[in-house]
């Protein structure tokens, strides 16, 4: 299987591309920023074909950052970029300044991502990755470039990174104008009540519900399952299992298509992790495994081990996963607390994890066989065939940037395999609630501030797998979020303190 599975009609050559674009006068191109926001534009067909035939085209560095180099070529500084509301980050990142006037990055076009956008009269669409304009190397915080690094590392061992992603998301009967007019207060859910897996609730707004599935298929974002989840107006959609790069593309393109369809129907879908304090949040569970060059799942046990399980398994719950999978799991658990901002990147995301046990949102360094209470759910025989053996990372919310989350998961897992790490803790079944209260279980950071402080410290495992440049820049973007949050006065504070303080 290729590192990224190309779309069905992806061109093999410029001549094929010209045939695909016959009859079109424009092309839409886009790339992802550090928050997973899709940033793009229309290009004329001639300009697009010229870019394909060269290194790419210029794209303003403010969406990520720009590098300034001194005469000997040594890296010195980068320009602070935009946050998800187009505000420039509040402090200099990597000794950043505006000396070079936010010069262009090179956006290189990935022809394997060719699609037509069904809701835009089938305009041709391509994704881009961002390169340094001088070295032509991937920009250190380009989401697609970061994940490609870890996919490449796995390939050196003859493995493919395989993944699937599930999103839960609320729907509101609101438009961008009504959200602004209401100041995001008293929003109307698409449907009332708690109706997980309901066949009745899908009869309401049925055109919108069905369109998500059908349009996703036409947009080559394959869906495995699509249903209502518990909560007012909540849907859940599981994206098809494929290569890590393809599923990360698919995940953020899925958000784009759902939001685009929502505008058509006067609906605002939200992938915010915790929009309601007293209701379950929105998960973004990630399933991962590794395959060899023949498509065999290397997390699976050998056929002869299916009878009694693998000898030497650290615990009975792990006897139907391979030794390689056990090392991978140990690596994820060993570094989980150090990479939390890549898994839970927003202030709001940690609200989902606080007291998360009540809503199946795990908040500790735990794992267990088929356990939805654990941070890492081990999925293996006897509940699934050996070919479906995998790990489900349940920490992530729907607001996740899947490129960074998958990079962290595979980076930690590959580190565990390389170092043959032992499991740091027993399965969750070995612990009680009292053990958790007594501090016998390592808790995950409970705020973005705590998580970021842990990630950026000098001896963080995040620095070992991602490198200093990524950690310093991405950590700076999270510190920007924290600063804005600390400066904000919330309605809760006003209601609690205004009269009686």
Report on this model:
Helix 3 runs parallel beside helix 10 and helix 5 (206-218) packs antiparallel against helix 6 (244-265). The model is unreliable at 65-80 and 93-97 (pLDDT under 50). The protein has helices at 14-20, 45-52, 143-156, 176-181, 206-218, 244-265, 323-335, 340-343, 349-353, 402-419, 433-437, 448-456, 461-466, 468-487, 491-497; strands spanning 26-32, 38-44, 57-60, 67-69, 75-78, 104-117, 123-131, 159-172, 223-228, 234-239, 242-243, 268-270, 286-292, 367-369, 376-379, 390-393. Strand 1 (26-32) and strand 2 form a beta hairpin. The protein contains 15 helices and 16 strands. The chain has 501 residues and is an alpha+beta fold. Strands 8, 9, 10, 11, 12, 13, 14, 15 and 16 form a nine-stranded mixed beta sheet that branches. It is globular, with a radius of gyration of 23 Å.
Descriptors:
nine-stranded mixed sheet; alpha+beta; five-stranded mixed sheet; 501 residues; 31% helix
**Approximately how much helix is present in the residues?**
25-40%
How many helix segments?
15
Shape estimate: globular
How much of the residues is beta strand, in percent? 15-25%
Average pLDDT metric:
91
Let me know the number of strands: 16
Q: What integer value in Å does the Rg equal? A: 23 Å
The end-to-end span amounts to: 63 Å
**Helix vs. strand class:** alpha+beta
Largest sheet: 9 strands, mixed
Q: pLDDT below 50 for ≥5 consecutive residues: which ranges?
A: 65-80, 93-97
Family: Belongs to the glutamine synthetase family.
Pfam families: Gln-synt_C
GO molecular function, one term: glutamine synthetase activity
Protein name: Glutamine synthetase
